[in-house]
Design brief:
Layout (H helix, E strand, L loop, with lengths): L5 H8 L2 H13 L1 H4 L5 E2 H8 L3 H13 L4 E3 L2 E3 L2 H7 L8 H15 L1 H7 L12 H26 L6 E5 L5 H9 L4 E6 L1 H11 L8 E5 L11 E7 L7 H14 E11 L1 E2 L7 H13 L6 E2 H10 L3 E7 L6 E6 L3
Parallel strand pairs: 4-5, 4-7, 5-6, 7-8, 9-10
Antiparallel strand pairs: 1-3, 2-3, 8-12, 11-12
């Protein structure tokens, strides 16, 4: 448990400042512009179409944070930072950082949302298809290692046909197929995301083992005939009632004896650990009408309502790597 004093509390109250400087630098395109080159403040401001006063102050703040380097009157983005924050770098997390910037207005309304108890669920985060594609691509980059770990923890060597519900570009499908050579997968997501999955998976050599199906799991039935179904980072965006409805669709998509795997934050009984899950629940409060992070008992109960049996917590963790299983017995 953290011990607080006046200094640390005041520091926490100002913690948003550095985050906002990073987000603005990302939104304005500072890091890509300065990747591998040196430019003066005036050159940066002219290229980005921003004020000399505002740009100069922002560049110095980013330098003070260690995100830029300054020599004399010129600035550059160090190679390691540029690799992470340039738009065209292979391992870039820039789309995820820009996604965090879209959360800013919602989090700014936290106090009235807490008073009301819910937020109106927004539409799609990205109106620009190119921006959506970049974000989905970044989700793959940051999720690869976690997918391998979850595939190993799943112990799915007996499964033959996996259904990856809301699986984006197939990061988890790919990890499971790499781990279990005899397995096939069906990737189910919105049609525009499935198109991105096809583009990414073409280079993996796995398309002969993956069926790509477009649809909306809120309104459409799921393809059937599977003995394993994965819901990875899905249930937190739903209310308990929505999860029961989704679980019933998964139940119908499984053959008797089939298993559902749920990867998400799994909270302890008093809902304070893992700390990252408690904070993510706030994100669901401001971003959805009924989403939350759930305890194992809550997950088990909603699974039971949908017909599943023998729910078990396979793995807990400090991040979104909790893993729950349950079975369709008949």
């Amino acid at each position: 448990m953290r011990v607080w004093n006046a200094e640390s509390l005041l520091g926490l109250s100002r913690g948003f400042m550095e985050a906002r400087v990073l987000l603005s630098g990302a939104e304005l395109g500072v890091f890509g512009l300065l990747a591998g080159v040196w430019r003066t403040s005036d050159e940066v401001c002219a290229s980005l179409g921003i004020s000399r006063r505002g740009g100069g102050i922002l560049l110095d703040a980013l330098t003070a944070m260690g995100l830029l380097t300054k020599e004399g009157q010129t600035y550059s983005c160090p190679e390691g930072i540029a690799q992470l924050l340039s738009p065209n770098a292979a391992g870039s997390v820039l789309p995820m950082v820009k996604h965090a910037a879209t959360l800013w207005p919602r989090w700014s309304e936290l106090t009235p949302i807490v008073q009301k108890g819910m937020a109106e669920r927004p539409g799609g985060v990205f109106e620009d298809p190119a921006e959506l594609e970049a974000f989905i691509g970044a989700m793959h980059v940051v999720g690869v290692d976690a997918a391998r770990s979850i595939a190993e923890a799943a112990g799915a060597s007996q499964a033959q046909n996996m259904l990856d519900v809301g699986g984006a570009t197939g990061t988890y499908s790919e990890a499971f197929l790499a781990r279990y050579e005899g397995m096939r997968a069906t990737l189910f997501d919105r049609p525009e995301v499935i198109a991105m999955a096809l583009k990414r998976l073409e280079a993996t050599g796995l398309l002969s083992r993956i069926s790509l199906v477009g649809g909306d799991f809120y309104t459409d039935a799921l393809p059937g005939g599977h003995d394993l179904a994965l819901l990875s980072a899905i249930i937190h965006q739903n209310s308990p009632e929505q999860n029961v409805g989704l679980y019933r669709k998964v139940y119908d998509a499984l053959i008797p004896g089939g298993r559902i795997l749920i990867r998400d934050h799994v909270m302890n009984a008093d809902r304070t650990e893992p700390a990252s899950g408690a904070m993510f629940a706030v994100n669901m409060l401001v971003a959805t009408s009924g989403g939350n992070c759930y305890t194992f008992d809550e997950i088990r109960e909603t699974l039971r309502e949908a017909g599943f049996e023998d729910a078990c917590l396979l793995q807990s963790g400090d991040r979104m790597n909790g893993l729950v299983e349950a079975f369709r017995r008949s």
